[in-house]
Amino acid sequence: MRRLLAPALLLFPLAAFAAGSGSDSPPTPTETTTTCTDGMVFDADLGKCVEPEVESLNDDQRYRAVRELAYAGRLDDALRVLASMGDQQDDRVLTYYGYVHRARGDFELGDSYYLQAIDANPDNLLARSYMGQGLVIRGRVDEAYAQLTQIRARGGAGTWPEQALVQAILTGHDTSY
């Protein structure tokens, strides 16, 4: 199937826009990953590492920390920060729970979080892409292609989620951010 899909998929450029960041690169290391330990997050206003639950941090700051920690391979720390998020049913929180569990090798648990994220927001292209990438790794390319079709049908043509999933389908490898 991959050989049949490759020509059609290659028609689209494969820019590597980092998920959820609006950037074309992995997250830039900050003090959260260079200085802080044990799931703590750097609070620039306070100039120090703080517990992720502190009120001085908002969920956007926590979300950026989760992304950075996950990319750095500090998955337990990313889970700690995710657990401090205010709305545990927010689709982006569920998406990153899925990402972290998939990165830990628990594809089934990761999929369950992705499906919850998609149920909460059917237009969550990132959850669809990450789930599709996990499906590719497990050899379930037809199911991954179904997610790619959904991404495109929901206005995601040319986005990082689409292009990352195309790359995974073509190479058999997922992205690390």
From TrEMBL:
Tell me where the TPR repeats sit in this chain: 91-124
Tell me which UniProt keywords the record has, alphabetically: Signal, TPR repeat
Note the Gene3D superfamilies from the entry: Tetratricopeptide repeat domain
- Give the highest taxon in the source lineage: Bacteria
Would you indicate the residue range of the signal peptide? Answer: 1-18
Name assigned to this protein: Tetratricopeptide repeat protein
